[in-house]
Design brief:
It contains 12 helices and 13 strands. It has 351 residues and is of the alpha/beta class. Bound molecules: thiamine diphosphate, iron/sulfur cluster (SF4) and magnesium ion. The site of iron/sulfur cluster (SF4) has 12 residues, from loops.
Length: 351
Amino acid sequence: MTYLAKPKLHHPRLSTNALGFTRRDYEGAVSTLCAGCGHDSISGAIIQACFELSLPPHRVAKLSGIGCSSKTPTYFLGASHGFNSVHGRMPSVLTGASLANRELVYLGVSGDGDSASIGLGQFAHCLRRGVNMVYIVENNGVYGLTKGQFSATADKGSRSKKGVGNQDSPIDLIGMAILLGATFVARSFSGDKAQLVPLIKAAIEHRGAALIDCISPCVAFNNHPDSTKSYDYVRAHNEAVNFLDVIERREEITLEQEPGTVELVRQHDGSYLKLRKLAPDYDPTDKIAAMTYLKEREAAGEIVTGLLYLDPRSEDLHDRLGTVRAPLNALGEKELCPGSAALETINASLR
Ligand SMILES: Cc1ncc(C[n+]2csc(CCOP(=O)(O)OP(=O)(O)O)c2C)c(N)n1
Ligand code: SF4
Ligand SMILES: [Mg+2]
């Protein structure tokens, strides 16, 4: 792959995070996507979130499939680990990497074609298994890279750029993720950085399978007035149910907003999510109520965004399997080859 590196120079007074890095240290190569593509805004939000969390870049692994969306890891976190896999196969590669080394933050980036068509099976299984990851679907309702065919998330009745109507029912990745057992499920919009950045930070802090379905308009093929994934349509129908902030483990907890509209949710690892409720009746920890609310608002033509479902007591695949804490490449011969007596014990237990 050829790509253009950004010049290293930056303003000497750029603010730095706890590690002494500037936001620029989290950037990648120059994007080759169309100017105005929603995917570039999501890359910007990922950069901002990792900078604000002071993540050491070498502690992050970014994985993707195939599509314009799956190209984007080249454009952020240039100093992190990266693997651009096969179409629809990002989840299994990510699962394997996570099992081999649980010490990294895993960021899976995919498209609606990559995840809802060819990769739907992989999408389902990594969520139900509770792989510890942030899975971002950059959802534009089309196959952008292959020139604008309807994807499986395109709304029934929405029209292509050439006026062709979509006849098929859409796959609702949010509803599927909640039913499958994902423990952090959010929807956002690439044009709403104020909502998206804290959601990404919260998803990184969450232990377990975190999905962010992010509507991300394709300006080349699906940003016309008949598209329900266009900038204008999403802005006109966006209903945010809450606004999120992350309180990291080391920070003091203060609550300055009015009680009743702000809720602190303690996560498994001791971090807190500060949830400012915009729809006071919406409880993201109530799975059934969340599903009902989402379907009701969907029927009224609204696109509900925010943190839609959260299981604060979540566990991940490692908890379930009882895997060793150390990365596999850090294990010595003694751990990897415990001797014939240990092998005999295992064999005996299987007889
Ligand atoms: C096995 C296989 N089948 C089909 C393709 C062709 N192909 C490349 S990208 C793509 C769809 C990408 O759509 P999406 O995941 O929504 O990404 P976008 O470009 O819209 O961001 C397809 C069908 C492929 N690369 N590999
Ligand atoms: S074709 Fe669409 S999805 Fe691909 S880079 Fe252009 S605007 Fe983005
Ligand atoms: Mg797409």
